[in-house]
Amino acid sequence: MTTDVASPPTRQRNRSRGGGLLPSPGWGYLMIAPALIGLVALYVWPFLTTFGKSFMDVPAFGPGTFTGVDNYTELLGDETFWQALRNSALYTAILLLGVPVAIVLAALIEQVSRGRAVYRVLFFLPVVTLPVAVSMVWRFIYNGDFGLLNYVLSLLGVPGQYWVADATFTIYAVGVVGIWMSLGINLIILGAGLQSIPRDLYEASSLDGAGRVRQFFRITLPLLSPSVFLVTVLTVISALQMFDLIFVMLRSVNNTALADSKTIVYLFYEKAFVEFDQGYGAAIAIVLLMVIMAATLVQFRLQRRWVFYD
Amino acid sequence: MTDQILRSRPIERAAAGSKASRHGEWVIHVVLAVAAVVMVAPFVWQLITIFKSNREASQMPPTLLPEDPTTGAFATFFGSVPFWAQLTVSVSALVLRVIGQLAVSALAGYAFARLRFPGRRLLFGLFIAMLMVPSQLFLIGQFEIIRDFGMLDTIPALAIPGMFSAFGIFLMRQAFLSIPAGFEEAARLDGAGPLRTFWYIMLPMARPTMAALAVLTSLYSWNDLLWPLIVTPRGDKRPITVGLAGLQGQFGTDYPTLMAGALVASLPLIVIFLVLQRQFFSGVASSGLKG
């Protein structure tokens, strides 16, 4: 099925371009009507609303007033915002460290002849477990007084820390959970990529006496690079939008570390829906969009240097 | 491709693996097993903790197994959380969202794939453009619409925005594109109109994609926290995610209770996953399932 999504067979593609389609404007409009109404009302319009509000001062109740770029200039001078941006960037960087791990594990899973299904299910469990639930479990493991992590570290002679209550560590602690949670997804995407590498390449290179490690770097990695690129792009996009983990793992009455650990989306949520400063919240959301677009654009530029398309 | 992932391929494998690689397979199993243990350890610790008393769960050094196993955590959880009400909300919102999503996406996907009408390209472009915008950009406007329609704190409010997804339409369009034209032409020659062709010929053939989309939508719906948090200000009609997040404020460091709640709330989807693994994997492989 993935093959269909990635590249529909040429035969059908030609067809969709050509005149083979049913000329049926009436049915066509009727069938896209629900989607169109929903997308315009709940996506296009809200998007424009957010864009408009980012240039307004909007009180909790009543209409807003146009204030030009005030929200944006205020943002630029707001240390909380910069902190959130740095936190999101750090979290994203940490999640990217999970990509090589996923590549190695995916390649190893491909190598075994038995038990692949079991590994896939085990690695995928965190993906299908409620993020809120997962966050609670990790919060317990990270507990500075009686958490499992500190206990294990104490056995190794490493001093324990308040992982989710000390802003020095929070983003790293949350980042580890993020890697753990997304590994299963990355393995599936990379596994699909690995399956599409022609087997005879490996046979030919074994005949030439190439070892497994050499094959990994000479064949697997280059041919897998389009999948790695996809995983990287998706990881960055989703990491920049992280919210749940911070919300559940750090938010409690007396956790002072939260103030220094907010991500962009957490800050957006707080401004727009807790403090109901929607103009400011909207400006944060627009900046988020720009950051994500810029990050994605940079990656598409860089891909020419390392992604191998045959 | 996804189907291939799920099938092991002994023939190619035997051909690919030299004698040396066969010999070394147990090393790989050891590495994978260690990784799997790390992945599963938090769940194991969660399960162990549930059967401890609160005092035992918060002692250092921790006990490996409960000294005096108790199911008190479940009792506390069910006794103090309107779990069944929250479960009903989560399930209703999920069912509504999945049905809506499938109907909307299948209809539009079919029209974009198979029917010709003016503006088709432009509209499809508009849909795809929406795919690239992070969901937070829509929240303020969506909230206002839900509020202005007087739908805050209702189940439809939880489900409706999620019914419309550019991704779902895209996925269904791809599925219909990959169905050979012959089937449709045969139906047309028999005098079936677009709607009949769609319903009796095309839809059944797109079933695998619909299953993947349904599973993926369920996952999003079940896990969503931010949107339900926003549209349930009053507090009744809160789904499990919001309820669970609130549990933490209520029980602070009563970890056995929190772990029990986390388990109970996650279990339905985990069970569905174990039953429908194939659909989960193919859904994820086709989307990336992020954000």
UniProtKB/TrEMBL annotation, chain B:
Belongs to the binding-protein-dependent transport system permease family. Keywords: Cell membrane, Membrane, Transmembrane, Transmembrane helix, Transport. This is Carbohydrate ABC transporter permease. It is a multi-pass membrane protein. PANTHER family: ABC TRANSPORTER PERMEASE PROTEIN MG189-RELATED, ABC TRANSPORTER PERMEASE PROTEIN MG189-RELATED-RELATED. It comes from Micromonospora costi. Pfam families: BPD_transp_1 (PF00528). SUPFAM superfamilies: MetI-like (SSF161098). Residues 87-276 form the ABC transmembrane type-1 domain. It comes from the Bacteria. The lineage of its organism: Bacteria, Bacillati, Actinomycetota, Actinomycetes, Micromonosporales. GO terms for biological process: transmembrane transport. One of its GO terms (cellular component) is plasma membrane. InterPro entries: MetI-like, MetI-like_sf. It is found in: Cell membrane. The chain crosses the membrane at residues 26-48, 83-110, 122-143, 155-176, 197-220, 257-276.
